[in-house]
Amino acid sequence: MARSSLRRRAARRSPGRVVAFVSEGTVTEPEYVERVRLMRGVPSGALRYVRAGKSNPLGLVRAAVRERCENARAARSGSQPLVDEWWVLFDTEGAVHPQAGIGEAIALARKEGIRVAMSDPCFEYWLLLHYRYTTREYGSAEEVIRDLREFMPSYSRDNKRPVGPGLADRLDAALRNAGRVRDRNRRDGTTSPMTDVDLFVRSALGLPPGD
Question: How confident is the model at residue 201, as a pLDDT?
């Protein structure tokens, strides 16, 4: 066997940076990200959604670690571009029905170099910030959805497609509002409501990181 065939192949890289994410939701989050990608003209290969088959925070992080390893192997064989950054998006579900294992999930993600975008109580809070700045302490996702329906009347537990007037066009407002919420939580020593989806979006779109 030729010596060259014994050498480990260099991982195949795409022309630009690639960001991949797994999420608790299989409709809202990937459809939202796709809308933003199209609006901002990001190449389709630069943002990759990976269906994890899990819904709890720890399961999602473990799935991201597994997918990252599989992607690295595929990139070495030249069958896939190497993903530069992996994210996990999940919700706390609020104080009424909180998710279990959040602390363990965050610790594992930090150990494995996986980035986390958590929302309290839910991803819908991030959607709401496109239309309104609010620091109301929501106890559950249902409470957020009731407020979100003022702007997205068709949205419900049974219809989670992120369809609303000018949603993607309001991204800059959402980024500002999420930053204001984070500043408020730091100032007041509070943790709810909150979202780090803005940090994921900034990274995915190649925007400045913000605060």
Answer: 97
For 10-41, write each residue's pLDDT tens digit. 444 445 889 999 998 889 999 999 999 999 99
In the 3-class helix/strand/coil scheme, how is the chain assigned residue by residue? CCHHHHCCCCCCCCCCCCEEEEECCCCHHHHHHHHHHHHHCCCHHHEEECCCCCCCHHHHHHHHHHHHHHHHHHHHHCCCCCCCEEEEEEECCCCCCCCCCHHHHHHHHHHHCCEEEEEECCHHHHHHCCCCCCCCCCCCHHHHHHHHCCCCCCCCCCCCCCCCCCCHHHHHHHHHHHHHHHHHHHHHCCCCCEECHHHHHHHHHCCCCCC
Residue 2 has pLDDT above 70, yes or no: no
Helix pair angle (28-40, 197-205), 10° resolution = 40
- Which amino acid would we find at residue 2? A
